[in-house]
Amino acid sequence: MYKLIKKQGNAKRGEYRTPHGTIQTPVFMNVGTAAAIKGAVSSMDLKEIGCQVELSNTYHLHVRPGDEIIYQLGGLHRFMNWDRPILTDSGGFQVFSLTSLRGKIREEGVTFSSHIDGRKIFMGPEESMRIQSHLASTIAMAFDECPPSKADRRYIEDSVSRTARWLVRCKEEMDRLNRLEETLNPNQRLFGINQGGVLEDVRIEHAKRIAELDLDGYAIGGLAVGETHAEMYHILEETVPHLPVDKPTYLMGVGTPANILEAVDRGVDFFDCVLPARNGRHGHVYTRRGKINLWNAQYQLDTQPIEEGCRCPACRAYSRAYIRHLLKAKEMLGMRLCVLHNLYFYNTMMQEIRDALDEDRYPAYKRQALAGFEELGL
């Protein structure tokens, strides 16, 4: 399970042992929504660029190809040829993001219209756990509602109370599923999710409540959905101390390199975000001096790699000028190289964070990294 190796201030350096390998933390999980990283990145590529954990989406895999099909094919690891840890989110975020396709949120769960063919889909705590059990991921996320961060207090309080009740049902159902003989991964882990918008008292009370369940890990959801960075950091400062220090703390859907550095400083050790892959697909690539847009004309004759000294597959072999040409010619290779670079950048930054924590120099590393990013406004 989770071993806290050391702390520097509130920053944690740990490792999380799973049936699919040990995760060194802090860690950035590479997002493969439909069991693939957008941008033509394979599972073999992920190993080359230092990915420890792949993250897939429960709702999207339930809709297509169907969790029953993945179960019959031996689970998500075998399906996508990935032997390292996989985290599956619960489908709960779609309660927030697919408002135009869902019905009323009820105690039992939520009814969606599929974004692909319009068919009705019901998902509640038990359904989410069954789908994730079929997927046989390493870590399953509890089913929750992510209320809008600026919703009124009454709505947020009611939503968080329901999410707390749903978590108990998730735990009971996962315990049942893990005892079944036909379950592909009987050691599947369950992480609960803290919610509460930007209301610190609601966040704290919910953190205390879910901490009593002695789960395998704890996530903080519902941030980076409209609030300021200062508000997000404040919520982390107030909430994280009320979650178990001897369990992983996961900040969902965050974020920029600067967000990660600040959140590590506040005790977070699991991260995921679509930004590096999404930005890469649009030719926006990360460097230690900030983010650059390879579509810009200034790179037309630029023979440098994206970043000097970078050992990613793109920088080892290709120039900015060539990658810009590929993007403008709509060649998929250009998008692929940018995504590979960005994910390598994130995974390498996490290794540097771990090294800095190991060597008791994280504050200095953070200051240096943030100063570099600010040169180009990252």
TrEMBL record:
Protein's name in the database: Queuine tRNA-ribosyltransferase
Binding site for Zn(2+): C310, C312, C315, H341
Organism for this UniProt entry: Bianquea renquensis
Gene3D superfamilies: Queuine tRNA-ribosyltransferase-like
Family the entry assigns: Belongs to the queuine tRNA-ribosyltransferase family.
Subunit structure: Homodimer. Within each dimer, one monomer is responsible for RNA recognition and catalysis, while the other monomer binds to the replacement base PreQ1.
GO biological process, one term: tRNA queuosine(34) biosynthetic process
Entry keywords, A to Z: Glycosyltransferase, Metal-binding, Queuosine biosynthesis, Transferase, tRNA processing, Zinc
Essential cofactor(s): Zn(2+)
Cofactor note: Binds 1 zinc ion per subunit.
Top-level lineage group: Bacteria
Region called RNA binding, residue ranges: 253-259, 277-281
Function: Catalyzes the base-exchange of a guanine (G) residue with the queuine precursor 7-aminomethyl-7-deazaguanine (PreQ1) at position 34 (anticodon wobble position) in tRNAs with GU(N) anticodons (tRNA-Asp, -Asn, -His and -Tyr). Catalysis occurs through a double-displacement mechanism. The nucleophile active site attacks the C1' of nucleotide 34 to detach the guanine base from the RNA, forming a covalent enzyme-RNA intermediate. The proton acceptor active site deprotonates the incoming PreQ1, allowing a nucleophilic attack on the C1' of the ribose to form the product.
Catalytic residues (UniProt): D89 (proton acceptor), D272 (nucleophile)
Keyword Nucleus among UniProt keywords: no
One annotated GO molecular function: tRNA-guanosine(34) queuine transglycosylase activity
